[in-house]
Write the structure tokens for this entry.
Amino acid sequence: MSSIPIALPSPAASRQAGILLFFAALAVFATFDAGSKHMLARYPAPFLNIMRYSAVAVLAVALLWRHRGGPRLRDAPEKPLLVLRGLLLATVGTCFMTALIWMPLSEATAIYFTSPLIMVALSPWLLGERVRPAQWTAVAAGFGGMLLIVRPGSNLPWLGTLLMAVSAVSYAVFQVLTRKLSGKVPGPVQYAYTAFICLIVTGLPAPFFLPDPWPNWADTLFIVGLGACSGLAQIFLISAFQRVSAATLAPLNYFQLLLAVVFSTFWFQRPPDGLALAGMALIIASGVFLALRRA
């Protein structure tokens, strides 16, 4: 799950490196999701979330230190939108992590990846953009794919499905706000606001969901490693967006969904059935089409 604002493309000579860094980020994100689902069998979701966002907050401090000559957090414009953006991503992280307690990884990730479709559907009202008939058709096809995944008889838990839907909608609005803030607030400031708000919000319930028993040394190292994965993925994303335009990278996002299917099948022995795979294919095709049209 990415939270880096859109950046301007860098020279074409670094295009290949940027694409490789982006694929690395998606692989690390997929590994984080799979590792989190594995640990959710033993430890509460709020505890794992606070560990994750602690690592992200450390990265935010490092970014602010690197750009210490730039704007300060308290002087940032558009503070209400920055706070709302952070709250939305905190909602995404909380709902996604909690849903993984019950949901198969592949189906959960597929529902989450409807967020670009939701963003297009919301853009006429929130951004004043025109959505053409072909784009509406792609949105409808993508939502048809989601219905193939959550259809009656699919045995997906209703609570987990609802939480993933909330996560997808929240991330879509998060993306819309990122676009509204683009060019108004520096990227490191946007990222820092998001990181610190996510840390505060996920930290509030954490004392009420302490692990019992506490992780042993092996699990502690694994959980710390998950937090490091989250931070490392953010670093890869930042580096990728510094080298390649967001329009070029957007269609590649669905590589993470393919990795989720692989993890779900071979790690958790929960392969999606044929109709769910068809739904995922529709979501991927619709998302790639919309990304290419936007580019």
